[in-house]
Amino acid sequence: MLRNTIRYTVMADCTTEQALDGLTEEFRLLSENDSIETSFLIFEHSFANFDNYLDIVHLAESVAASKSWKGIFQVAGFHPEYCFEGEDADDPANFTNRSMYPMFHILRERSITAAVEHFPNTDTIPERNIEYAQGKGLKYMELLRASCFAS
Fold first, then answer.
1. Residue 89 and residue 57: Cα distance in Å, rounded?
2. Strand ranges of the sheet holding 38-43, from the earlier edge strand across to the other edge
3. Distance from the Cα of residue 87 to its chain's centroid
4. For the chain, what is the total number of helices (H) and then of strands (E)?
């Protein structure tokens, strides 16, 4: 059954301040509309540099942890050049957090809690995803990502 509970917002050519304003607006919208389960804030032409993007993710996490949104939302960051700290850039595991564009995934904490209660071993999902990506190898993961751009 298609529930239409995911919201996608594209922000082109925005500054850090505009991105954080957009994030705050998404928090407000989600707070007022329970029919939207989760939201993606996509930065189509902004934040190409991964290290700079990580700074913005930390700011976004601070906004989510502020007294207004604490315990309500979490922010997960995804980026085309995502690289786990201390890992080689060519490790296929990085593709578990790579995306087509820099983005924030806004999750409701109550949804995370419900998932943990209803699905076994949710804490092993990241590890299983990494093992899958590494098992498939770098070329496979690169081709999979490239296929998303094919028309």
1. 19
2. 6-11, 38-43, 103-108, 73-78
3. 19
4. 5, 4
Expressed as residue numbers, the domain containing 30 is: 6-147
Half-sphere exposure of 2 (CA within 13 A, CB side): 1
H helix runs in the chain, sequence order: 16-32, 50-64, 109-118, 125-136, 138-147
User: Residue 107 pairs with which residues in a beta bridge?
Assistant: 38, 74
For every one of its 151 residues, what pLDDT tens digit does the chain have, with 9 covering 90 and above? 567 899 999 998 999 999 999 999 999 999 999 999 999 999 999 999 999 999 999 999 999 999 889 999 999 999 999 999 999 999 999 999 999 999 999 999 998 888 888 888 888 989 999 999 999 999 999 999 999 887 6
On whether residue 1 sits in a domain, the answer given is: no
Q: Please enumerate in sequence order all residues whose Cβ is within 8 A of that of 11, keeping only pairs 6 or more positions apart, or say none.
A: 18, 19, 22, 41, 42, 43, 44, 46
> pTM higher than 0.85, yes or no?
yes
The two three-digit tokens of residue 88, written as one number: 């080689």
Q: In Å, what is the CA distance from 146 to each residue of 49, 95, 129, 149?
A: 19, 12, 19, 5
Cβ atoms of 106 and 27 within 8 Å: the answer is: yes
Our count of domains for the chain comes to 1
Asked if residue 103 is part of any domain, the answer here is yes
